[in-house]
Amino acid sequence: MTESVPADVQPIDPTGWLTLPDVAERFEVSISKVHQMIRDRELLAVRRDGVRLVPAELVANQTVRKHLPGILTLLHDAGYDDDAVLRWLYLPDDTLPGTPAEALGGDRAREVKRRAQATGF
């Protein structure tokens, strides 16, 4: 997927990562349920050094951020793979402010969803 972001704009790193067993423990579900959530695009996991990890900002207490599953579906439908979705979520955006991933935890979550929807057009 080619993104319409200037090449000199670099995504920032998530503030932390959770392993899949960590997510299962936090959600109080089995590891197989976490794998199912990833397959169903309810949760994003990427490989780092051979280990699947979830950005900590995408997890809220015992569930995923409210609008995350919809955003993941919209971006995947627009042709983004998991790494491109991660990049999109962590590109700095002064109009939010911060990154889309950070905005998911606040009152700008619907704006992030609207922007994800616009990527398909």
UniProtKB/TrEMBL annotation:
One of its GO terms (molecular function) is DNA binding. InterPro entries: Rv2175c_C, Rv2175c_wHTH. Pfam families: Rv2175c_C (PF18367), Rv2175c_wHTH (PF21531). Residues 66-119 form the Rv2175c C-terminal domain. It comes from the Bacteria. Residues 12-58 form the DNA-binding protein Rv2175c wHTH domain. This is DNA-binding protein. The lineage of its organism: Bacteria, Bacillati, Actinomycetota, Actinomycetes, Micromonosporales.
